[in-house]
Structures are given as C-alpha cells and as structure tokens.
Description:
Layout: H1 2-14, H2 21-31, H3 37-47, H4 80-99, H5 109-120, H6 147-160, H7 169-186, H8 193-207, H9 219-230, H10 235-244
Amino acid sequence: MQACIDYIKFSYEAEGYTFSEQEENPIRAILDDEDTADDLIQKYIDEHELPAQFTKQASNEGSVYQGTSVLVNYFSIMDRAKIKKIEASLVNFRTAEMLTESMQNTYNFEFLLTLHGRMYSDIYPTAGEIRTTIASKRTVFCNPEYIESEAEKIFTRLREEHYLKGLERDVFINELAFFMGEVEALHPFRHGNGRAIRQFFYQLTMNAGYDIDWALVDADRLLEADICAIDGDYQPLIDVLEEVVL
C-alpha cells in the first residue's frame, strides 16, 4: 500500500503539486478496494462542475486550441493550468486502479499504448495514440514517421532479454537505464510520456523481481538523468537507480 502511495505521490509532486491528505484519501480508497476509479472520477467531475461540451470531430482531435498550447480535451478547457491540475488528479485515480491489478507478463509497445490510453482517456481523445507531430524538449525526440519502426527494434530487444527477468541487480540496473533512455527518446505520445513510461518501467521492474523506493527518488535529478540517457549517457540514470532499486 505505502509503496503505491509513494509512487503516485512522486508522480504528482513531480508535476508541481502538493500531495495533500485530500489527494491521498481517494487513492487509498481505490487501493483498499473501498471505491472505484470510475466513481471517484465522476465525483471529481461533478464536484468541480466540469462541462461536458466536447464534440468529436476529425478536425480537432489531436490538435491544440487556437492561440493556446492546450490539447483538445473532453471538457473544452483552454486554460493550461486548469486542465493540468484536473489531469493530474484524474490520472492519479487511474494509476491507483492499475496498481491493484495483476502484473502484466508481456511488456511490449502495445502495452505502453494501453497504459497511456487508460491514464488519459478520461481527459483527451488522443489517449493511447502515437503522436504525428515533431516533438522536442531540451532535446529532439524521434520523428513521428519513425516511431513505430524504432519501437519495433526497442521492444523486440526487450523481449529477447526476457523483459529483464532473472538478472543480477547490477546488470538489471544497467539494462533498465538503457531501455528507459531508449523509450524516453522515442517519446511516442503528444502528451503524458513521462507518466506512461514511468508506469511501464515500474511495472516491468516489479515483474522482474525488483522494486523502486519512490520516496528516495529526487524528481529533478531523475529528469536530468533521463535527458542524459536520451543523449546516450546512461551513467547518471544508473547512479539514480543504484540508490533506489530494491
């Protein structure tokens, strides 16, 4: 229970929010099977009086609202700060829901797409879809036309390495850092890559017989290490993982 709470708290605070008791209580309710993500999301929507004004159109899906950097969303909210806060809370509920389920055995690209879809399907019509636009953030990510072919290479290699099961700790950490860097560089989604990729590798880590103590992870340091790994320098990420992989 506490490990799951620590993981969700890390992701939430990494986005700049304070994980208060008000945020923690519904997460505990999901993890304890006392409430469902569906019910809590609907309650959140009702309490915050979020409008249901979205009309699905080919012309607006996958785009941003004119004059903004805000992705088209189901609530037709064009205020970036507002939709980001809503997103962070709703994704917390879906993350808790996924952490209560049986472990995945096949950690392929389709599973990553599924994770992203479940995390963001309450907010964005593009949840779980591969981006079609060029993306960069302190570094240039994989061009959209190469995402699927590069994903095939990365996840084929991950499968051939048996999803990192049965490895000694030092070898596991080195391989984990490599694959994390490769998928971060792939950056397959228009939005929400960090959360989805982190969830993927957290579940893969547990499936491989290890765990991550998220209470010990420094978000800023992890971000810098991720950027180095994208550029091919895996050592900073290895150093971070050495301190937190159990």
